[in-house]
Amino acid sequence: MTDNALPPDALTDREVEIVTLVADGLTNRDIADRTQLTLYTVKWYLKQIYSKLHVDNRTQAAARVSEMKLIGAEPRPKDTAPQRLPHSGTPFWGRKAEIAALTTLLQDNPARLITIHGIGGMGKTRLALEVARHVEPQFTDGVVFVSLAQVTSDPLLAIAQTVQLPITDPHQVIDKLGGYLYDKNLLVVLDNFEHLTDHAASVTKLLERTRKLRLLVTSRETLQLTSEHIYPLEGMDTGVDSAHGGAQQLFLQHAQSVRASLKPTDAEVNTISAICRLLGGMPLAIEIAARWSSVLSVDEIQQHLSANLDLLAADERDRPARQQSVRATFDYSLNLLDPAEQDILLSLGIFHPDGFSAQAANAVAGAGPMQLKRLLDAALIKRSDDGRFGFHPLIRQYVEELLQTRTDLMNTARIRYMDYYRHFAITLIDGLSQTIDLSQSMQLVPEWYNFSRAWGFAVHSGDFEWLVDVVEIGYVCEMANLWGETNALLSGTLPHIPSEQEILRGRLLAVHTFFTSRAADMEGSRASAHESWSLLAETEYLWGAVGAMCQLAMTEAAMGDPEQAFDVLDAIEQVERRTELSPNRYIETICSCARPIVLYYTGHVAQALPLLETMVAPTWHEFRGQLCECYLEMGMVDESRDTLENLFGAALENNNPRIFMGCVYYLTQIDSSSETLLDDLVQSFVELPRLRISYPMLAEISYYYALQLCTRRHITWGMVLFRTNLHMLKALNAFSLMYQYTLSVAVALTWFHKPGATNILQALIGDMDCPAEIRAQAEAHLRTLPPQQAAQPPRDLLSVVDEVLLHDVDLASLPLTSDVRAPLGGASAN
């Protein structure tokens, strides 16, 4: 042995194995196949070997170990038996973020016990094995995989058996195993721990007896140990990249294994993505669903899955019994709960898929903190970062189906559910009798889907007393920016109101006026406001009709009918004394601001300005934005900037995205040059999500602002804002919203710029990345428009948008808030 050579025991058993194969002339790939390591891992080991032996290449390493008499000698006694991680017969797809996070935990986190926690079928075992292969090089004593599926006693005995440590007395297992593993740099993967949680304390004892041992556990139940670091595992990513996402590739792999000729079209790729989203990215469900491709098309698979879970049953003989169907895997988890916990879980099925708060869960299902924690530990519910709870989509479907079979439990849950949301709404409505508290109104946003679900129960059961109690929630919805949702809810409710409920109908119509106005539905606003007036004129609810008429007056003015607007105002002021005791501060605000806003909208800026300056609108209200516009049109730029900055601060304090979006829009106009304005607007809007605006709400509000500008004849600015919003959504990678928004813009353009609408619709149809359902809608709208002389060739979507929306726009000559009455490109304004 040379002076530089290390003693033979300086090499680990794995390194001796690899360098021996090197001496036998095997390539790195051959060694990887022989040892079932990854190619990367083999290369890592070779670097370690070269360093320890002080050599530079394979030839020198082979010669050195020959000198050390490692080759051909009797094998040294091994501390642990050679371990081979199980290999699946199918590729591993996706989960890059999860692998990176778990790898980091195993490398850098002081926690030595990490539990991959999730419901059955989420792919915990496959993920654990993949992570183990990634981190294997850092564990010099190897990685050990221990399956606990058939184990019924202390898991330490299973570990001892796997590492071939003889244990004659089970009571001595902790002493012997702890001593054996004391200084070993070893990773043990403990798979399927959930039925052994009563023995979890022994895991802590083992960690206390060892220095370097790390445990990676997979379990449907948390181990409830202080030393445990829980990594919750949810479904695979089912994002926008429908062609190459891990979930979609998993589906295709299993679909093509039973139907090799399957080569999905663009439409089928979109359907596969929809199936993966429907299944919540659950690998087991995706695999089972995909294998139905042998007899069903992807569209038929989607239809069956939307109905029930019965399709998610497999017949492969090599699947464990509890994974033969998704229903079976859920049954297994449900049976881990006691009967009272099962009833709580099923009662939670009454909530909307959007989720529920802890307070609501307690009131409706009797789920206090302890019960919620139990369900979380069983991976049957999940908790989001905002503190709300919910289900995986398939677990929700499973729970709903079981709840339908428990009539008494279902009826009790529904009664409590409706009662909870009735009191919730009444509390918010009562708040408006005292003051306009925007922060209180915004509490409705996370509860909207549950509230509207309870509303739907009342409508379909004929519980009109419930509606009578909560009808004024519409004003809270208006403040909370829930415009489209509330408009749809009220439009769907009105046809179900019987003739004998005319006061209820009048109150609903009064509220409805606000949302038809937001949608620029002039005829709808007129019809709702006037009918509410006729139904409520002789009742104590006249104040609601007055508020509706004030809103109508402002809408008439914005839509270019000043005579109608002033007629409505005059009629309202004749009954003003009868509404002085309105119990609704929001309606009082609308009524006090109606005349100055109408004056401003109809071009009487000088008359409107002093009234706007003294109006009683809350500091955060959008009517303050009209004051800023008025300052700009009067050339009072400094006053406008000061007002906007104050309004922006108030909007941030009250978390009102509608208002600070408007502030950003106008401040950018003021502070940008004509050369940089377009880019500055896009950049300003890209920053908006930092102000806690969700992308869907951002898109809806920005569309409303652009539409409002167009209806008020500020058409050029409306076009610029439409364009800004589309480029913003692209920059935020919100592609599905971008395509939906583009369709909405094209439909809006049909009112006054039909050639431009046609070009954008054609560009949507020709964009193969556009979702199939949006392309179909674009085709339907295109058929309603007169054909152009020649169809446009396929072009980049946003290039077409820019050409249409910015055609003939001279930004250098565009005054602030310019009232451009001629439509773009010389198109007729019909």
Straight-line distance between termini: 96 Å
Strand order of the largest sheet: 2-3-4-1-5
- Described by the principal axes of the CA atoms, the overall outline is elongated
The major beta sheet can be summarized as: 5 strands, parallel
What structural category characterises the helix and strand content? mainly alpha
* Percent of sequence in beta strands: under 5%
Instruction: Give me the Rg, rounded.
Output: 34 Å
Helix content: 55-70%
Averaged pLDDT, please? 83
Number of β-strand runs: 7
Poorly predicted runs are: 72-82, 812-830
Count every helix, treating DSSP H or I runs of 4 or more residues as helices. Answer: 40
Set down the secondary structure blueprint.
Layout: H1 13-23, H2 28-35, H3 39-53, H4 58-67, H5 96-108, E1 113-117, H6 124-135, E2 143-147, H7 155-162, H8 173-180, E3 187-191, H9 201-208, E4 214-219, E5 228-232, H10 246-258, H11 266-278, H12 283-290, H13 298-307, H14 326-334, H15 339-347, H16 358-365, H17 369-377, E6 382-383, E7 389-390, H18 393-404, H19 407-432, H20 438-441, H21 444-461, H22 464-470, H23 473-479, H24 483-493, H25 502-518, H26 522-536, H27 542-558, H28 562-573, H29 585-601, H30 605-614, H31 623-633, H32 637-653, H33 657-671, H34 677-686, H35 695-711, H36 715-731, H37 735-749, H38 754-766, H39 772-782, H40 797-805
Parallel strand pairs: 1-4, 1-5, 2-3, 3-4
Antiparallel strand pairs: 6-7
Helix pairs in contact: 1-3, 1-4, 2-3, 3-4, 5-6, 10-11, 10-12, 11-13, 16-19, 19-21, 24-25, 25-26, 25-27, 26-27, 27-28, 27-29, 28-29, 29-30, 30-31, 31-32, 32-33, 33-34, 33-35, 34-36, 35-36, 35-37, 36-37, 36-40, 37-38, 37-39, 38-39, 38-40
